[in-house]
Amino acid sequence: MSECVFCKIVNKEIPSEIVYEDDKIIAFKDINPIAPVHVLFIPKNHIASLNDIDNENADVISHIFIKIREMVKELGISDEGYRVVSNCGALGGQTVDHIHFHLIGGRQFQWPPG
Ligand code: AMP
Ligand code: ZN
C-alpha cells in the first residue's frame, strides 16, 4: 500500500534501523522506544491488523513468532522475560494500520497495561 508507513520501510523509501530481514518479514527498532529493547516485527506483505489473519497468511505470522523467539535469545533477554504486543484497532491503540508485533524487554512491565 503506497501510503502505508511500514510498507515504505519495507520498500526502503524511508529509513529504519533494521535488526532482521528476510524475504517475508522485517524487524526494525521502534522510533519511539518504550523500553531498552523495542523492536517491531512486520510481514513484508501488507496485512492491516490481527482482524485480517487467515489461513492464507498464517504462515508469515508463525514465521514472525519463530524469529521473535530467536531474537530474544540473541539479545539475551530470553530468560529474564519480555513482552510481545499487537494492538488492534482504535480501542486497542493501533496507530499504524500494517500489522506489527512489538517486542519489548529490558525492564519490568506491569499488568494490566492500562
Ligand atoms: P501501534 O500504536 O501499536 O500501532 O504502534 C505503532 C508503532 O510504530 C509506535 O510504537 C511508533 O513509535 C512506531 N513507529 C511509527 N513510525 C515509525 C517509523 N517510521 N519507524 C519506526 N517506528 C515507527
Ligand atoms: Zn503496509
Automatic annotation (TrEMBL):
Domain HIT: 5-114
Gene Ontology MF, one: catalytic activity
Pfam families (alphabetical): DcpS_C (PF11969)
Span(s) of short sequence motif Histidine triad motif: 98-102
SUPFAM superfamilies: HIT-like
The organism's place on the tree of life at top rank: Bacteria
Protein name (record): Histidine triad (HIT) family protein
InterPro entries for the chain: Histidine_triad_CS, Histidine_triad_HIT, HIT-like, HIT-like_sf
Active site location: H100
